[in-house]
Input
Amino acid sequence: MTSHDVVGRVRRFTGIRRVGHAGTLDPFATGVVVVAVGRATRILQFVQDAEKHYLAHISLGAESDSADVDGSVIRRANMRDQPDRKAVEDVLRQFIGDTEQIPPAYSAIKVDGQPLYRQARAGKEVSAPPRRVQIFSIELVAYDPPDIVIRVHCGKGTYIRSLARDIGVQLGTAAYCHGLRRTSAGPFCLDQAWTLDGLAEIDAWEHWHDIALHPDWAIAHMPAVILSKEEQTAWYHGQSFTVPGNWQGDERLVRVYGSNGDFVGVGREFSDGRLRSTFVFNTGSEDEQS
Output
């Protein structure tokens, strides 16, 4: 099931057409897909760049064209001299930090205006340009050759399939990602998530407060600013204004609340104390069917 399929199912559950997701999950993978409906879709731009956690199962000894279990095997490697646990741990440490990564051929990255996966499916030889990604930590959870299980904490744009492939290369063999589970995306964790089957068994609107989080949950890491009534009027008119406080650092994004405590959007606060709206979340009535 693709992330697009998940969006389609949520549309059917809720009857709302305006549904989006933050961060594509590979079809073979499971785990957290952050979905927003109605006005809350505007908050997704701040979730897509969030850090993520994964649990990955890597199989050594073979490489597939998609770098995962769904692909066709394109290379097999000698596994007579299997690396020991220390060798695996040493290789994993090499990938921690800012590193250059080549995305898989079967990915949504566009080259010459077309997604790579479309070109690959058409039989073309494709290669994405390398790009910088950030990996904060890799923990070796289990090692029973030829199987490796790792826990990864990484930044946006990291392909765990590419990481699996590259780990195999550094170990002097081949590898592909046999299983993948996203355990968190930003503040959203697996233990908070609903399964699609679970949602299908209930009335979404009757249980809305049980299944949906308020949009500002997605940006809880941002500092908060509370407006006065006068400042709130200026906010809704798209005006910048100075807010009280001693902020003197670099400009930053802040979550903004009205004088009554309602969430009213995200703003950019400048070092001189001025606040300007990045997007305005209208707390009034809105047709959620659009």
The chain has three domains: 1-50+186-220, 51-185, 222-290. The radius of gyration is 22 Å. Confidence is low (pLDDT under 50) at residues 285-290.
